[in-house]
Amino acid sequence: MKIDWLGGATLSAKARELVDFDMASIRQTVAAARGVEPSVWVVSPGDYESGGRILRDSPVHRLAAYAPESRTLYATDGCNSCVKNIDLSGAGRSALEACAAESGVPLALLERLAALASGLGISGTDPS
C-alpha cells in the first residue's frame, strides 16, 4: 500500500486520527462491495487541518484511493464517499478533468493517483 501526502504537509496526531478514520471508512465501502482494497492512497492534508485547527469534514473530497486491479476510485470528504470505475493509469488530462467534474474529487488528487498508478506500472483489468 502506498500513501502519498499531497504537498508533503505534516499533520497533528488528532488530524491523523481523522485520516485513519476516513481510510477505515473507505475500507468498509470496499468490503461491503466485496471489492479489491486500494493499493494507492492520496491525502490532502490541508483539508484535515488548517492553522492548527482540526477540520472534521471538508467541502471537498480530501482522501482518495485507487484499486488498479479493479480500476476503482474511492474518495471521501469525511462525511460522504464516492466510488467510480475508471482506469487512472491510462487516463489523460481530459479524462481526469471529466472525472473531477462528475465526481467532485479534486483534480489534484486524481492527477496524483494517476501518476502513482502509472508509476507502479499497474494497469487495471476489465471489472466485468
Explained architecture:
The protein has helices at 13-32, 93-103, 107-119, and strands at residues 2-5, 40-43, 49-50, 53-54, 63-67, 72-76, 81-85. By secondary structure, the chain is of the alpha+beta class. The two termini are 24 Å apart. The strands form 2 sheets. It has a 5-stranded mixed sheet with strand order 1-2-5-6-7, sandwiched between helices. A two-stranded antiparallel ribbon has the order 3-4. It has 3 helices and 7 strands.
Which parts are unreliable, with pLDDT below 50 for 5 consecutive residues or more?
A: 121-128
Mean of residue pLDDT? 88
Apparent shape: globular
**Strand residue percentage:** 15-25%
Helix/strand layout:
Blueprint: E1 2-5, H1 13-32, E2 40-43, E3 49-50, E4 53-54, E5 63-67, E6 72-76, E7 81-85, H2 93-103, H3 107-119
Parallel strand pairs: 1-2
Antiparallel strand pairs: 2-5, 3-4, 5-6, 6-7
Keywords:
128 residues; alpha+beta; five-stranded mixed sheet; 7 strands; disordered C terminus
